[in-house]
Every structure is written in C-alpha cells, then in structure tokens.
Amino acid sequence: xxxxxxxxxxxxxxxxxxxxxxxxxxxxxxxxxxxxxxxxxxxxxxxxxxxxxxxxxxxxxxxxxxxxxxxxxxxxxxxxxxxxxxxxxxxxxxxxxxxxxxxxxxxxxxxxxxxxxxxxxxxxxxxxxxxxxxxxxxxxxxxxxxxxxxxxxxxxxxxxxxxxxxxxxxxxxxxxxxxxxxxxxxxxxxxxxxxxxxxxxxxxxxxxxxxxxxxxxxxxxxxxxxxxxxxxxxxxxxxxxxxxxxxxxxxxxxxxxxxxxxxxxxxxxxxxxxxxxxxxxxxxxxxxxxxxxxxxxxxxxxxxxxxxxxxxxxxxxxxxxxxxxxxxxxxxxxxxxxxxxxxxxxxxxxxxxxxxxxxxxxxxxxxxxxxxxxxxxxxxxxxxxxxxxxxxxxxxxxxxxxxxxxxxxxxxxxxxxxxxxxxxxxxxxxxxxxxxxxxxxxxxxxxxx
Length: 449
Known about the structure:
By secondary structure, the chain is an all-alpha fold.
C-alpha cells in the first residue's frame, strides 16, 4: 500500500471516530458511559464487520491503531482479549453463514492474537504491584478465550489442528500457572529471553519429570522442541493438563463449600457454573476419564447421575468407581484361590486366570464404550445449557441496549427542545430590546422637534 493510501486510511479512521463521538454530544455523560460499558460487554455477541464485508479492513485498521496508541499493560491485555473474542465471534458467524472460505485466515489471526494476549496477560499477572482482582479477571478472560465451539473446530484443516490444540492448551496453562510461579524464577527465565508460554512449559515439564528448569532449558538449547522433550521424558501433555485442572477443580470445590456454608448464593451460582465449564474443558482437552476403570455400566450410570444431580463431586465419583473395581478384582482372586488351591493343577489355574483376564478385558472394553457414550451425552447436555445461557444473556443485553437507545433519544429530544426554547427566548429578548431602543429614539426625536 502506498504512503498516500495509508495516510488517507488513517484520516478516514480518525474521521469516523470523531464523527461517531459527535453524534452523542447532546447526551448526558453518565448515559454515554453506561452505553459504552454495555458495548464493551457485548463485544463477543456483536461481531460488527465480518470478513465478507468490503469495509472489514477498517475494523482491523482501528484495532491496530488502538493497539499502537495503548501503552498501559492492563489496557493492552483487555484490548487483545477483545480482539481474540472478536475473531472467535467472526468465525462462529462465518460458520453459521456457511462462508468457510474465510475460516483459515480467521483461525490463524485468532491464534496470533491469543499468543499476544497470553504474553501480555502473563506480564500483568506476574506483576506483584497489580491488584489481585485485576489479575484474576484477566486470567479468567484468557482461559475463556481458549473455548472454541465444536462447529468452528470442525472447519480447521487436519494439518493445522494439532498446532491449534497445542496453542489453546498453552494459553490455558499460562492463565492458570503463571499466577502461582515465583516472581524471581519468572524474572530469571525471562532474562533468558523465554516467553511466558515457554516458561510455563519449562516449569511444568520440570515438575512432572523431577528434573530442574536448567535441565529442561538445556534440552531446548540442543534444538529439541517441547513435544520431543516431553516424549523423551515419557510425559504426555494430558498429564500436565490433568494435574492443572485437578488443582483448579479442588480449589473451586473448596470455595464452593465455603460459599455453601456462608449462604452466598451469588458465589454458589458462579462457582457451580465454573465447575460445569471445567467439565466441558476437560472433554475439549481429552483429559476426562483417561484413567478410570469400572465394574459394569450400572456403576458408571449411577455415579454419573449423582454427579449431574450434585449429590457428589466428580472426584468422589471417581474414587467410588476405582474402589468398586478393586473390590471386584480382589473378590475374583479370592474365589479363584479358594476353589483351586488343592483341586486344580497349576496349568488349569493358569488357564482360568487367563480366561478371567480376558473376561475382565471384555468388560472393561464394554464399560469404556458406555463411559465414552455417557461422556458424549453429558458434553452435549452441558453444551446446550451453555448455549441457552448465552442466548438468554444476549437477549437481556439486547433489551438493555434498546432501553438505553430510548433514553438516548429522549435525552437528545429534550436537549433540542431546551435549545429551541432558549433560542426563542433570546429572540424575544432581542425583539424587546429593539422595541425599547426604537421607543427611546422616537422619544428623543419628539423632544428635538
């Protein structure tokens, strides 16, 4: 693009911004703030211009201009998270409108924005001078940015899908791990020119393998990638995700117990929703039910029903299932030993054990299939609940926006009426002054005559 075109675009953007601001010149300041807050809250729901629009480049230009003019880390983090959310929202709209030719570029821009956002958010979260509620809000928003609908994920090309999932998991780890890292350790690793995504991987791999951060970094310096290092250390990425999610779940359950004890309904509702979302995230990252073994489908159905109905937690359900299968295995061993100790020769005992092992393997396979189906149904149910909640929030936001538009219109109308009255009053005053001047001049003329 020529310099002339760039300047023209810049002036056009500034003109649009100033024109937009002038429309609300007569509206009360507090109402403008209320409208602006609502617009900020609706950024995910209202995509604005989409890639199929001729003027979409203006939307991107405004984003770049805002980033260029933003120097505060907290504000830049918020802006980047909004951009990430907008790319996701645009992707969902393109899928809905069956315009998947735009998806490849949108997904790439989402990943780029997500990486920038995670680095900026981590910078704020690791700053000891920043207030805790700000850190928590930004970390939560970054975590939420890793949630992508199944419809969007299905459009991603197979060769891109692995990278897509790795970048999502990296951002999720940054959102949940950076806050607990030693600031001195972070500063030391940053001094080695490591990004926060790399720092989190180095630390978690070190913790999981028992090695030091220095040993992991040495492997990196040998030219090995994180995937290669994890494989060499016999660590699957799901192990790290599972550990982080288990810690998060335990913390939320403890907070939920405290909220129940204090009767804090708002906290109870919020934490219950967060736990449900965590279950969805486990399914998204394929870390749910990886290590569970069960006796039969009835046990699985019963425990899952108890979890869904909040009669027990997922951890308690998992413990119940594990204890059940262990008891079953012990009973089978005892029965076999009792029946064959003195009556069956060693070969026959071995054959029966093999048959029992095969039977258990068959049962385990059937249970795994049943468990997979139950998990799929639960995911669908949670997804539907999430969709309904989003729709309700969207409708409420739309109603509120319409209410504010009415207030804005009334305020503008009132301002116009007041201006009209003031103008009429000024006109009347001028007329009266003119009449008085005319009378004075006439009186003076009469005296002279």
